[in-house]
Structures are given as C-alpha cells and as structure tokens.
Amino acid sequence: MGSKRSDRREFLKRGVALAGGVTLGAVAKSASGQLEGPEAFIQGTDELVGYGKRSSYVTSVRIPHGGRASPDTFGLDFHIAAPLQDSVGVITPSSLHYMGTTRGSFVPDIDPEKHRLMIHGMVDNPLVFTMEELKRLPSVTRMHFIECAGNRANRRHRTVQETHGMTSCAEWTGVLLSTLLKEAGVQDGGDWIVAEGVENVVGASSIHMAKAMDDCIVCYGMNGEAVRPQQGFPLRLLVPGFEGILNVKWLRRIKVVDQFYMTYNDYGHLRQDSDDAALGMQIGPKSVITYPSGGQQLPGRGFYEVSGLAWSGGGAVARVEVTTDGGRSWVDAEIRGTAHPMAHTRFTFNWEWDGQECELQSRCTDVLGSVQPSRVQAIEYWTQRGQPARVKGQDNSIQPWRVESDGSVHNAIS
Amino acid sequence: MRFLRLLLPLPLMLGISVQAQSPTYGLGRTPSAEEIRAWDISISPTGEELPAGSGSVGEGSQLYLEKACAGCHGTTGTGGPAPRLVKRDVGPDAGPWALGRVLPIRAPYATAVWDFINRGMPLYQEGTLSADEVYALTAYLLFLNDVVEEGTVLDAQSLPKVEMPNRDTWAPLPEWWRPGMSRLPSYPY
What we know:
The complex is a heterodimer.
Chain A: H1 2-19, H2 21-31, H3 46-50, E1 63-64, E2 77-81, E3 99-105, E4 116-121, E5 127-130, H4 131-136, E6 140-147, H5 160-164, E7 167-176, H6 177-184, E8 192-197, E9 204-208, H7 209-212, E10 217-222, E11 225-226, E12 236-238, E13 251-257, H8 264-268, H9 274-281, E14 286-291, E15 302-311, E16 317-323, E17 331-332, E18 334-336, E19 345-353, E20 358-366, H10 375-383, E21 401-403, E22 409-411
Parallel strand pairs in A: 4-13
Antiparallel strand pairs in A: 1-2, 2-3, 4-5, 6-7, 7-10, 8-9, 8-13, 10-11, 10-12, 14-15, 15-19, 16-17, 16-20, 18-19, 20-21, 21-22
Chain B: H1 2-7, H2 10-18, H3 33-39, E1 54-56, H4 57-66, H5 69-73, H6 103-106, H7 110-120, H8 131-144, E2 153-155
Antiparallel strand pairs in B: 1-2
C-alpha cells in the first residue's frame, strides 16, 4: 500500500504540475482521505485515445465451441461461442459476437475500396456495387440475432456459453436485399438466390426468394461501426431468424437462380426428413437464463434478479415465463426494453432464494403463439406420431439449471 | 425515392412506379458479360455453368498425390489430419446417410463435389486447379467411394448424370414458407 500511495502522490504531483488548476479539485477531494480512490490509473496512450478498450478487470472471452480448436491445426477458424453468462442487455459486443464458418475458413483481410458486390443471374439489369454506392442507398438499422444450427445443448455442457453460446445479437445497418434485387429486376422463375463470400473456401448458400425479398439485409454496419472482419467485413448478409449458415459473410456475389443450388454449405446442412428441414431453417421460440447459470455460484440466500435472453425466428418475443420449481409452476418474467422481431430480448424475474436446492427454467412464447417446449414435450410430440425420440430441427428446448443448497449452479439436462 | 420525387416531373415518376423492373436509384454499374463469367463460379445441380474440359479417374489418382491432397486427407482418402474423403465401412446394406458426412458420397449431385474442389481446394492454394484437374479429381474421389467405375472420364455432359446414392433421399427446404409463418404450422413449438 505504502509504495502505491507514493507512486500516486508522484503522479498527482505531476498531474498538478501539468494541468495546473484543472485537476486541482479532484486532487483535493481524493487526497483528503475520506474515501479510498482507485489504486491505479490507466495511462492514456494515442491508441486508447483513438479506440477505447475494456477494463483489465473484465476478462469475459469467447471459447472454441464443440470440441474443435479455433484456430485448428490448419490455422482455420471454426466455431467460437459467446460468453452469454456475462451478458447484460441485448447487444453482444462485436468483439464477443459468436463466430461460425462452415468447416473452418480464414478470415479475409479485405480492402473496402476494392470490394465489390455483384448481383446477376436471372435479373434484367446485372449490377456491380462499390461499398460507397451501397452506402448511398436507403438504409435500415435493425436489431437481429444470429444463431448457429449447432447451438444444441447437451448434458455434458457446463456453462451457458457451452449450451447456448452459438447465438448473439447486434444492431445491424445496411441496405435491404429487396432494394438491390428490385434494382436489378428479378425475372420470372428466379425463385432462389445463391449468396457467396470471398473467404478462401468461397462459401455460398442458397436462399429462397420469399425470404430474400422479405427482410434480409446487406450489412456494412454492426453496433454503430463497420462490421468486424470475423463477422464479414466489409459486407455480410443478414437473414433474420433463419439458421446461421445463411448469413453469408464477406459477401461479394448474389446470383438469382431457378433452383436450390446444393452448394457445399447447403449440402453440409441437408436433412433426411422434411419436418427436420423446416424446423432447421427458421428458428423457433427459445430462451435461456444467463444468471444464475451453470458454473456460477450464488453467495447465499436472499434476493436475486434472475436474468436471461429470449428470441425467436418467427418474430418478436411476446412472453417469457420462469419457473423456480423445475416446471411445476410458471410465473411471467418481465421483458426489459423493447422486444424487437428476431432479436434477443432481455427478461428478468425478481427471486428470493430460500437457500434450498431448486431448478430454474425459462420458457419463451413468440408473436405467432409458438411456445418453447421442454425436451420431453418435443420428444413426446414426435414419438406420439410414430417418429424417432429426438428433438427435430433446430433445438429450441428449455434449459434447466439446478441450484444446489451450497449456491452452486449446474446444467440439469438429464 | 424522396430525392427523385423532387427532381423528376410527375409522368416520369409514374413511369417508375409502373415499370417496377427499371432501376430506381441508378447506382451501381452494369458488369460486362466477361466479368460475370469470370466471377460466376456457381455450379447448379443440372450443371449448366460447368466449363469445357475433362478428366479421368486415372489422372485424378495422380493429381491426388501431385497436388498434395494425400498429405492432408491421407493417401487412401482417410487417416490424414483433414476430413476423410471416403465413406465409412458400415456394411453392404447401409443407406447413404450411414456412410458419413463425406462430400463425394453424401452429396446428392456430383456437381457439388466438383464445385467445392474448384472453389475450396487445395487448402492454402484455393482456385489454382484447372477445369481438367477438377474433373479428374472429382472422378477419382467418386471412384474411391464406389460411385463410378475405374475407366470413367468426366466432363460437363457426364458429370451431372452421375447417379449419386443420396440423389433422392434428402429433404428439400420448405418452399411453402412465407414471411410471418411459423416454421412448421402443424407443430406448436
């Protein structure tokens, strides 16, 4: 303590000498000894003045998902999960936004001045846009989540980052894809598009025209700045509410075509069963409690604001319920802020923990009236119809967390 | 749109709203036919965009070694650090889905194998293979998976006709879907 104090005195002296009267007020207050001041200061640098950085005390980071290293032995990035356990509000910071690439790719370092987007195929006017031209077109700014098809919780997962970290939510800015498609003039029979990126494997996905013309966005902005390289800088496609792989990054080409093109990305997500295909394309109502969640520790009985995220590919979240007794009784949670369509929505629930072992769950209902099922309900639905006992399509089943009497929190999927 | 309204006389404005197919904003330029051809590497299941050229299983087996495919994927198509390229040995009666997520066996169309090798392989040197080489490597990988015979030569005509075992055993994405619909209307969740 003593040496720190003298360091600080040195610093303060210099501060006073440099800035004179301007800092004097602050110095007088902290030096008067009424309250302990901070132990250290963050040295201002040109870099930090230019672009800020989070506190060194905040250590929340992403982790490789699903047992494959990122970067892997070839240097490829694959799947990286967001630390939802530390999330507040609904926006995932761009640096923590989950990342997915089909079987791995390198993140290209693209000069936006040289980047072009071509729209061609079954259109009247094929077009090539520069980034500058795209930014001159009418824009939209919308909150949307993206979720990877691999965001499937299992009983071996410990934390919410492992069970649910392959989804994130950002504020996206760009031009509606429909604006560009109308500009090019889609011809009769142009029922699909193939969207393609410029990364080393030139990933491409087929998307049905009904979705392409609805609410897809060709994005250059993310959370108030340019889209990050890992998220597709300088341009990425956003396909709200649909499976993650369709949100093509580093977008350079859109071809209007007459059929599903069976690209490598398409092939990688093929299903055998048409219910599976439908339930995998659009994401169902889903939610998860992020606090308290697996791996966290409650310090003791008493008041807690239970908090979590809810979302649906079918539109806005209409309702979230919470149970603290393993699903016997459900109570409405409060939705914090606005529930945007196809966006993470923060919910909270005031909870008085009595120190007894209990199980917390949350359940989302979307504007279409679809309800998030328990794993048992989803499986029962199919077995009653003579189908195999599993959750079909994108897994949107309820996540149970068990709080033990010592305050430790555990994944309770059985 | 608001900008145009200020500038254009009314009849022209009406023209814009009637002819929905003519550009509204006039931004972006028209690419030349050659430019489109150079950019367009998509290959449909029916193979319209396939380039001229051809390659045989024999040539492919040579190229597989020369182009270092073997170093990453293993000399026999398995056992290397990169994903296996040959089907799993799960007995004679196994359906195509039991053979693993292996492109040259699970892909419903052989065009998808050609397309991926053309755009994505060999890793670190993507896009360097000639059309002939891609035909040959596709033929070789299909041969390794017992999809084509040893004497096969593939080209733009024969490639789309290759009968993949998974041709008709996959579920198309729901074309009935429209904005505002739930993901599967009969399903409550």
